[in-house]
UniProtKB/TrEMBL annotation:
Keyword Kinase: yes
Catalytic activity, reaction form: L-threonyl-[protein] + ATP = O-phospho-L-threonyl-[protein] + ADP + H(+); L-seryl-[protein] + ATP = O-phospho-L-seryl-[protein] + ADP + H(+)
Domain of life the protein comes from: Archaea
Cofactor: Mg(2+)
Signal peptide as annotated in the record: none
Record-linked InterPro entries: Kinase-like_dom_sf (IPR011009), Prot_kinase_dom (IPR000719), RIO2_wHTH_N (IPR015285), RIO_dom (IPR018934), RIO_kinase (IPR000687), Tyr_kinase_AS (IPR008266), WH-like_DNA-bd_sf (IPR036388), WH_DNA-bd_sf (IPR036390)
Keywords (A to Z) from UniProt: ATP-binding, Kinase, Magnesium, Metal-binding, Nucleotide-binding, Serine/threonine-protein kinase, Transferase
Domain Protein kinase positions: 95-306
Pfam families: RIO1 (PF01163), Rio2_N (PF09202)
GO BP, one annotated term: maturation of SSU-rRNA
Protein family per UniProt: Belongs to the protein kinase superfamily. RIO-type Ser/Thr kinase family.
Protein name: non-specific serine/threonine protein kinase
Length: 306
């Protein structure tokens, strides 16, 4: 849980954070970074380095390996700390709520606040949902780092959602505005609303119009949501489509299957409310595919390590 992570972060010195960073870089070469190397790279007094390692270990941010040599690696909580620290330094995040507003199989979402007082949603990705969609670009980047595969899968999820939100938001679709991404974490504007599946009564025609308009926008860009259902629609003053990490380019061999399923889900939900979804028109848009797939491949090449 993020509460412990935030508390741990509060106990770290600059030196501790620097050591964590050193391990992050060192792990590209070593599954467990030899303590000998950590000491050399840290360039501090030996006692101070050992003291930092002890604290990081005690707080659950790093793991120790004793054999065949003494070495260290970062835990999932350690990566959370690094991400939170980067967002702090970039002035994108000041506070995080102690309890999640949403927990799925592949992510945890917390509310938070920026230094400017803006309420945000902060999504931590715990798993990979999309590596098979970008196999070539992704595999060529991570094949040298087999032991870091899960780390890069979570980063790919964050990168994918940040990309889709950015493109759709810029084009005028109703999605949260993405504000920052680092590693496996995305910060976006907080939507004050309730998930559509919880809604009891409302202007379903207006809700459907927002959803369809957002789908049009996404499909023109070549983006198929891939997990669309009343669970991923937030209804406030307007209605927003959320949860895009598993999106796929409309040119992908399986994109049409996913799109049919997405549209089937919303069409049957709104159908029960007496509102029709223009399924044929949306399917047609997916056939004149946009360029999101190529653009995103270029982003993987550029940003997957950060
Ligand atoms: N921008 C946001 N503003 C407000 N609440 C949000 C926002 N993003 C997510 N949430 C809340 O968090 C919940 C989970 O978010 P989301 O659907 O993005 O991830 P998920 O369902 O956990 O993902 P996965 O499909 O990987 O399990 C949402 O149902 C919603 O209640
Ligand atoms: Mg969801």
């Amino acid at each position: 849980m993020i509460k412990q992570v935030v508390e741990a972060y509060g106990k770290l010195s600059k030196r501790d954070l620097r050591l964590l960073r050193i391990l992050e870089v060192g792990q590209h070469r070593h599954e467990f970074v030899p303590q000998e190397l950590v000491e050399r790279w840290a360039r501090g007094k030996r006692e101070e380095v050992l003291d930092s390692l002890r604290r990081l270990h005690y707080l659950g941010l790093i793991r120790r390996n004793l054999s065949p040599y003494l070495g260290w690696k970062i835990t999932a909580s350690g990566y959370d700390v690094l991400a939170i620290h980067t967002l702090r330094m970039r002035r994108k995040l000041l506070r995080l709520s102690p309890t999640p507003i949403g927990v799925g199989k592949e992510s945890e979402v917390y509310s938070g606040e920026t230094p400017g007082g803006l309420k945000v949603a902060v999504k931590f990705y715990r798993g990979g949902v999309s590596s098979f969609r970008y196999e070539k670009a992704f595999e060529s980047k991570v094949k040298r780092f087999k032991h870091l595969r899960w780390v890069y899968e979570t980063r790919l999820s964050a990168l994918a959602e940040f990309f889709a939100l950015g493109k759709i938001f810029e084009a005028g679709g109703m999605v949260p505005e993405p504000l920052a991404r680092t590693r496996h974490v995305v910060v976006m504007t907080y939507i004050d609303g309730v998930e559509l599946f919880r809604l009891e009564g409302g202007d379903y025609k207006k809700i459907a119009e927002d959803v369809v308009e957002t789908l049009r926008t996404a499909l023109k860009l070549g983006i198929v949501h891939g997990d669309l259902s009343p669970y991923n629609i937030l209804v406030g003053g307007r209605s927003y489509v959320i949860d895009w990490p598993q999106w796929l380019p409309s040119g992908h061999p399986t994109a049409l299957d996913y799109l049919m399923r997405d549209l089937g889900n919303v069409a049957s939900y709104f159908g029960e409310k007496g509102v029709e979804i223009p399924v044929e028109e949306l399917l047609e848009l997916a056939r004149t595919s946009g360029t999101a797939g190529e653009l995103f491949t270029a982003e993987i090449n550029k940003y997957i390590y950060y």
